[in-house]
Every structure is written in C-alpha cells, then in structure tokens.
Amino acid sequence: MKNELIRYKKYVQRKLKALLPVFANSSTGNFKRNVSIPADEDDFTELYVGIQLMLDVIREKIKLLEKSNTDLEKIVRQKTKALEEAQKISNIGSWEWDIHTDHISWSRELYKIYDIHPKLFKTSFQEYLKLIHPDDQSHVNSAIQKALHHKKVFRFVHRLITAKGEMKVLSCKGKTLKNEEGEVIKMIGTVQDITQQKKVEENLEKRVKERTSQINKVNNILLEEIENRKQVEEELLYEKEKIQNYLNIAKIIFVVIDRNQKISMINKKGFEMLGYSEKEMVGEHWYKFTASNDKNVAIKNAFKDLITGNAKAIEYYENLVRTHEGKFLLIAWHITLIKDKNNNITGVLCAGEDITESSKTVEQLKESEEKYRTLVETMNEGVMTVDGNDVIQFVNKKYCEMTGYSQEELIGKKAKELLLDKSFYGKMDDIMEMRENGNSSQYEIPIVNKEGNTIWMLISGTPLYNREGKIVGSIGIHTDINERKKNEQELIKAKEIAEESSKSKEAFFTNMSHEIRTPMNGIVGLSDLLTKTPLNDKQTEYLGAIKKSSKNLLVIINDLLDFSKIEAGKIEIVKSPFDIYEVVNDAVNLLKVKAEQKGLIMKTEIAENVPHVLMGDPVRINQILTNLLSNSVKFTLKGEVKTIVQLKSETDAQTEITFQVSDTGMGIPEKMHDKIFDVFVQAHSSKLGTFGGTGLGLAIVKKLVTIMNGNIFFNSKENEGTTFTFSLPFEKGTGNIELPEKEELIPEVPLNLSVLVAEDNAINQLLVSEILSEWKCSVDIVETGVLAIEKVKQKNYDVILMDIQMPELNGVDATKTIRAMENIEKRTVPIIALTAHATQQEKTNSFSAGVNEYITKPFNPARLYSKIAALTKDRKKNEKDQ
What we know:
Blueprint: H1 2-26, H2 41-90, E1 92-98, E2 103-106, H3 108-114, H4 125-131, H5 134-150, E3 154-161, E4 167-178, E5 184-193, H6 195-248, E6 253-258, E7 263-266, H7 268-274, H8 278-281, H9 294-307, E8 316-322, E9 328-339, E10 345-354, H10 362-377, E11 382-387, E12 392-395, H11 397-403, H12 407-410, H13 415-419, H14 425-436, E13 441-448, E14 454-465, E15 471-480, H15 482-530, H16 537-567, E16 576-579, H17 580-597, E17 601-606, E18 613-616, H18 618-634, E19 640-650, E20 654-663, H19 688-691, H20 697-707, E21 711-717, E22 721-732, E23 754-758, H21 762-774, E24 778-782, H22 785-794, E25 799-802, H23 811-819, H24 824-827, E26 831-835, H25 840-849, E27 853-856, H26 861-881
C-alpha cells in the first residue's frame, strides 16, 4: 500500500505540473491548448484515483490532530482541577488583573476567602479596594501603585470584614507582567487567609507577657535569697580565717587538696618548709611537687580513688616532696576527708611531718630520681608519660621544644585533647586500648603544637606498671618525622606530575597522529585514484615518489604512536599461537625487494630444532625484526644482511629463542654505543639527510624486548658491520594459528548501495565519494554527527562510513544515537568507523558504541570494499527475500 501511494503521488505531481500552463492561461482568459494534457479516460481516472488517495491521507491526518486536541483539552481540565484542589487545601486563592481593561479575574477559592458570590463582584480595581477594610485601603493602593511604577514583586497584609461581619486577615503577594516593550500589561498574585495564624500570634504574645511577669516575681525572690547567702558566706569566711590562723601557727604542714588533685590551701609552715610562695603552689597540681617513682604513682592512684569515694580513706602514707631548691624531703602524711553538708567528699586535708633525717632511703631515692631525670632530659627524642586516663604526668625538655609548650602547660592536661586533631581521636583510643591490654606499639600520628601547626611524630609507646604489676599508664618516645613526611608528600606530588605529563604526552602523540593521518588519507587515496587515469612517464614517476614518501611518513607516525603507548605503559602484548618460521620469513621478504634494489644479499637461517608453533605476540616480534632488518638494509651499501634464529633453551612447557640480525654495513661509531638505544638518537646523525629516520626505531625495539621479558645487545665495528642479538621466552604453542589478514584485490563487481558518509574533511569527502562512485554507489555526505543523525531519520541507507572526530557531535556519540532509534532498519544499519584515530582506546570506544568495523586512515580501498560487501551481503539478501 505504501509503495502504491508513493507511485500515485509521483504520478499526480507529474500530471499537475503538466497542467500548470493551462491553469495559468485560463486565469488570463487564454483558453488555447498550447500544452499537452491528458486526453484519454484512463489518464484522468488514474489522476483522480491518485488525488483521492492523497485526500484520504490528509483526512486521516486531520482526524489524528483532532484526537490530539481532545487529549490536550482533557489534560488541561485535569491540571486545572488539581490546581483548584491545591488552593482549597492550602486556603490560597489566585487573581489576575488586566491593566488596560481594568478587568480582574479571581479563582474559585478566592471568592470563598473574600466570602462573596462571583455574580456580586464587579471585576474592577476600585471595586476590589471597596472590599478591603477602610483603614487598610490606602496602604494596599500605595503598595500596588509602587509595584506598577517600579515593576517589582510586592506583598502586603490587609484586613477584611465579610458580609457575615467576620474579621479576616489576608496575606497578598503579586508581581507585574510586561510586554516586549517593557510596558506593564498585567498583574498576577495570590491571597492567603492567615486569620488563624494571627490569632495564634496574638495569644502567644499574651502568654509571653504573662510569663515575663512571673519571671520578674521569681527574680525578686532570688535577689532576697542571694542577700541572705552573702550574709552566710561572710560568716563562713570569718570562720575560715580563724581556722587558717590556727593552721599557720602549727609546727607541721597542712595542705588541702580538692577533687581535681590541686592545692586549694597550704599553711605557713608548708611555705617555709618547701620554700615556695603561695602563688607558686595554690591552684597547682599536687603531684607537680612530688618525686616520680613507683610508690608515689601507687599513692597517686589511691589518692584519686579516695577523693572520688571509690576506696577507703588512707590514714597515713609517706612520700618525697621536692623543695624550691630541688632537694627532696620525706614527709609522713595523715589524711582526713573533707565533706560538704550532703556528706559528699570535696577534698582531703593532709597533715604532714618532715621525717627526712630519720629515713635511710632518702639519698638513694634522690640519686635514682636524678639519674632518671638526667637521662630523660638529655635524650634527643621527646618523652612523655601519661596515667591511665591519658593525663600528662611528665614531659622532658626535648618534648617541650618540639611542641612549643612548657612543662607547666602540659602536666595535668589530657594529651589527646590538647595535642591531637579530633579526626585522630579514634586512632588514639585504639592505641590506648592496646596499652590497657599490656601491648607496646610504634605508630605515626600528627600532633598540633602550641602555634597550631601540625608536626608528624613517630611514637614508640609501652605500658607503665607499678610494683604490684598493675598498669598505671604509659610512656612514649617521640621522634620528629615532619621532614620525612614532607619528602613523602613531595614524592607523591612529583609522581602525580609525572603521570599527568605522561598523559599529556600521550594525548599529544595521539592528536598529532590524527592530524597527520587525516591529510595523509587524502594524499594516499587520491594518489591511488590518479594511477587509474592516463599518465605520461614523468607523471608516473612523480606519483611513485608521492606514494613512497607517504609510506615513509606513515612509518614515522606509527613509530611515534607506538613510542607514546610504551611511554604511557599502555602497550598491549597479546599471547596467541603463531608460526615462528612464517613471522621471520614475512619480515625478511618485506625488506627483500629493497635489499635487492641496492644489490644486497638477504640470507635467513632457522635452526631445525626451533619449534614451529609458539605462544606469543607475532605482530610485535615482526615489528622488532622489521626495525632491525630495515636499519641493516638502510646502512649497508654492499655485502649481505643475515637473519639467524636458534633455540637457546627448552623445557617441557617453555622455550627461549635467540634472534640475530647482522650486516656488513657502516657499523656504529664507538662513541655512540652507550646511546644507541636512547630516544631520538641516530648512529649517523650527520648523514640524516641521506638515510632519514626519527631515531625511535631502536628505542622501540629495546622497550618491546624488555616488556616481553627478553634482553637485547649488539656488537659493531665502524665500517665492518653490526650484529643485533635478542632473546625472548615463549610458551610452547598448541592452539590453531590465526593467519594474518590478506588484502584482496577489488572485484569487478559494482556494489550498487546507498551510502552515507559522515566526514568533516573536504579532501577525504572527495576521496571517499570518488571511490564509492566507482563502485556504483549513491553517496550522501554530511560534515557533523548531528547532520548524520538527521539524514538517517530522513532516509534508509545500506551502510554508513563514520568519521570519529567531527564538530558538534563526534562519531561515537552519533553511533550511539543511531543504535537507539526505534526503527529496526535504521538502528541496525551497518556502520564502519573510518577514522584517523589509531589508538586501541578509540577502537574499543567505537566498538562499544556499536560500529561494525574499524578502519584507520589512510585506508586501502580493497579492504574497505571487502568490509562493505561482507556487511551488506546478508542485508541485501533479506531485502530480496522480502
């Protein structure tokens, strides 16, 4: 039916075109028949049937449009109903005011809010103002006029007395609408009933005033209570001063220690005996003035339990106390608990007597203490001890130098809270748990010094035990590793910079390859086309030179691309079964013609014990041999080039093969021996114009051999020749050998296909168009991916040739869009990527997007023909079957 309609359409168009002159003459009164028109009944009948068929299609389109309009009207009614329901729920109405006609339109909910029937409201601005409370009309009118003048959003609140006599409070919001000339033509807005909200706010304000009054009454009561307490405190102060006088005249030391183990009072005898002033002792931690030994640690923990009420009172104990002069006094203490009126322990009263002279151990303890302190103070690392609650008990001078804190600023503080960032609290909690379990460890952690700067420390920590074997804290040796950490960060940054540089270099080589391959495709392709045209001998010679230069340039491009892959670590080494004899002979045969042209002899020797089938990468092995043989042929003017392959070693599963390429050429100067495998180095750079090359060949050979776990070396003597030897390990092959793809000649069979070419380069457009025309193909050419998609939507094609890098939309994204089309003919059309991008990543991306084949530029027309023929063979067969 579709084909029949198209036929009638063309027929009617042709007939109407023939009748146009007749209609033109008749409109001027000239009825002479000077044109041919259908004369027989069959022609008119067919014309009539064609017109009727087209009219039927037009009527069907009109029905579809009418149905769409009905559906749209239904959706609008549904949306309008939903809006009215939303306004009803939120108690919000909407309005619109036409400035020119002074006509105001209200929503249904707005009439309910204003409590007025629609028929009773005259839709003008002045009538609207009459509905507003008289005291608010001026305010509302002013707000609206300002909005009209300044063309801004406005909002205001006004009151309303309804027909029922109820007072309402309404919140109005609106904005102006302008035409293209900037003139205000309309205002739109909403109105919300906030009466209940206002009532709630007024009730809240009333309650606040009542509560404020109550608070004032309570404040007066509290002031009276404060005055009473002051009087009591003055009486207590008097009693305290009396007690203090009694203590000052005593012959023994009295010290009051609070719950934080800090001195809150010490009598006169204590100052005299120890040599400190009141300022130096009161408010300080008591254990700052005691000796650091196991016994005192035990007393300290017991003292803590005593103050917190977790143990029985210590009635008597002895310990060493340091005087202002650095001497130690052995004091015997009698302890009394201090409690408040609720019987809660608030501290202890210690009465102490100097028993130094009667103690035989004072000097020994003092000597031990001094040795310990001298050792710790002279250490080149920071030392810190903490108790079981992470409270700092001791730090040496080095630790103070490292952190910037003094000993007084550190002792008594919690180490974690003072020195660590909160983000490391969890790590330190885990370490403290290890200490509690008796485990030592070494760890790195950043601490924050007094100036707020971060310092990385290597800490070796171990638990501290008392004489009873109980863990009472831990000690840590701190080493400053800040400089090492900085070096590590610099190394990481340098690594990131190097990686980024490698990526940039890879991108440069890839883009350079693309930019060179694109014009090269035109040069090579048009050169091939020229060979098919009549040429004289001179033109044939010039054309041969062009083709030879093009091939040499492609070799350079491929070398650069391979080198960039190797440098980026993205070279792929495959492992597949291959015939080593075939790989070697292919490499030799490739250079054989060139060698014979120079009069050189090419020899090949493969030992009989070399296995035929091996597992490896035949392409890369061929690349290595081709590079070495190419150099030998290039730098040998007479004599021979010889390739030898031998078995070096063998096991049941593996074998190692040695390859040797030797020549009788110019040799490598001795001064170049150490540099010959370096990048961009040539043994005969002074003769570069004669021999050419990039200086990458041997660098690539060296890197490929190394990547495949082999080694390479050479022997050379200037003017006598060079021998390159490399060995590679292989697994023994057992699978089927994949034969390399052979390029076919173009058959003398036209393709007769409809082809879409997406290509932004004008030269390549010309080239592809000429080649496809030779194959009897109709060709459409577009410059962007966007235009390619539009063409596919308009027309069915047998195949698409898709460039990858194009403006607006690249070939990969264009392919994805085509593969997502609903029409099966369009989304399954064969797509061949015809691109100058030669990287494996681009190839992978293209196949992932949905291309069927991938051909790099410059391309071989025979290869393109075979790919198109293979992809369209089944497609054409299916069309014939249908």
